[in-house]
Design goal:
112 residues; Rossmann fold; 4-stranded parallel β-sheet; 4 strands
């Protein structure tokens, strides 16, 4: 059997990126309109997947179900909810990330 080819995917953080975040709560905040627009655009890009990349996924099946229900209530499809990167992730959109130039350790836009 041949090796299954995986489509590239974009990871979108939930709290503070796709949904408003004002401190920890089991309730997920309101959608962030500008990010919602981006996600809708990516969902209509052939050959590209979107995953919700959130630490909530590490809290177990009930928390993942809560995220999936939030997606449904906000007119998004049943996207995969994960906290695991793999080699097919091509971008990560996150309110806490610091970008580093590949193979250098040099941070972009950060005073060192």
């Amino acid at each position: 059997m041949g090796e299954q080819v995986q489509a590239p995917w974009i990871g979108v953080d939930l709290d503070g990126t796709l949904a408003e975040y004002h401190g920890w709560s089991a309730e997920i905040g309101k959608p962030v309109p500008k990010m919602m627009e981006r996600v809708y655009k990516w969902l209509h890009t052939p050959g590209l997947r979107v995953k919700i990349f959130t630490s909530r996924a590490a809290m177990g099946p009930e928390s993942i179900l809560n995220v999936q229900q939030w997606l449904t209530r906000n007119a998004l499809p049943d996207l995969e909810v994960t906290n695991v990167k793999d080699m097919f992730m091509v971008e990560l959109w996150d309110d806490r990330a610091i970008q580093v130039i590949k193979n250098t350790g040099i941070a972009i836009g950060v005073r060192e």
